[in-house]
């Protein structure tokens, strides 16, 4: 079987292309109408150096993304598709063996299950922070655990890469949404002491 990692032995080249695809994900994130969190995802087949699909967070097609709905944080989170989910749906079976680049939030637990089940082999995204009260950090840690267990590689976005994108390091990693609609279920995602 031939080697599907075109960057083996060439980490500098991989880092260069990682930064380019992260930049693309950041660009696409700006298309989101979500006023609080703009997230972009890019699926890349490295064997063919091909962008397979892109996605940003938003409501399903033909579901009105009115300002009223987008400003209602609980309702919004009940209706919105995450960037990774949109990219995976667009890619279909072509997601297999892709690398996923995500900018805007840590990968959540639901997206991790879908990335694993779609056959994605590597995820490049902001690492969640340990020991915070942020909902997205907590589910992000669960996501990392699942990716690791499933044998999906995870490459944290570096501070230098975020700087190059003009992103604030903390904002790029952390939730900008203080409301946790799933607060009553937080105990299920308890990490650390
Ligand atoms: Zn998600």
Automatic annotation (TrEMBL):
Residue ranges annotated for the CMP/dCMP-type deaminase domain, each copy included: 16-154
Keyword annotations of the record: Hydrolase
Stored InterPro entries: CMP_dCMP_dom, Cytidine_deaminase-like, dCMP_deaminase-rel
Superkingdom, taxonomy of origin: Bacteria
Listed SUPFAM superfamilies: Cytidine deaminase-like (SSF53927)
Region of interest (Disordered), residue spans: 174-193
Cited PANTHER family: DEOXYCYTIDYLATE DEAMINASE (PTHR11086:SF18), DEOXYCYTIDYLATE DEAMINASE-RELATED (PTHR11086)
PROSITE patterns: CYT_DCMP_DEAMINASES_2
A UniProt-annotated Pfam family: dCMP_cyt_deam_1
Name of the featured protein: Deoxycytidylate deaminase
Provenance organism: Teichococcus aerophilus
């Amino acid at each position: 079987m031939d080697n599907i990692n075109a960057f083996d032995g060439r980490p500098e080249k991989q880092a260069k292309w990682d930064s380019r695809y992260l930049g693309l994900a950041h660009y696409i994130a700006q298309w989101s109408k979500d006023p609080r969190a703009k997230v972009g995802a890019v699926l890349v087949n490295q064997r063919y150096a091909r962008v397979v699909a892109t996605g940003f967070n938003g409501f399903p097609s033909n579901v009105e993304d009115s300002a009223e709905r987008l400003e209602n944080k609980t309702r919004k989170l009940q209706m919105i598709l995450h960037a990774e989910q949109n990219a995976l749906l667009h890619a279909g079976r072509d997601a297999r063996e892709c690398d996923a680049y995500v900018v805007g939030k840590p990968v959540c637990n639901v997206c991790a299950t879908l990335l694993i089940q779609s056959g994605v082999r590597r995820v490049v995204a902001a690492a969640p922070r340990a020991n915070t009260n942020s909902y997205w950090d907590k589910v992000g840690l669960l996501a990392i655990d699942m990716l690791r267990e499933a044998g999906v590689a995870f490459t944290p976005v570096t501070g230098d890469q975020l700087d190059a994108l003009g992103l604030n390091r903390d904002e790029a990693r952390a939730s900008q949404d203080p409301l946790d609609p799933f607060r009553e279920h937080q105990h299920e995602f308890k990490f650390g002491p």
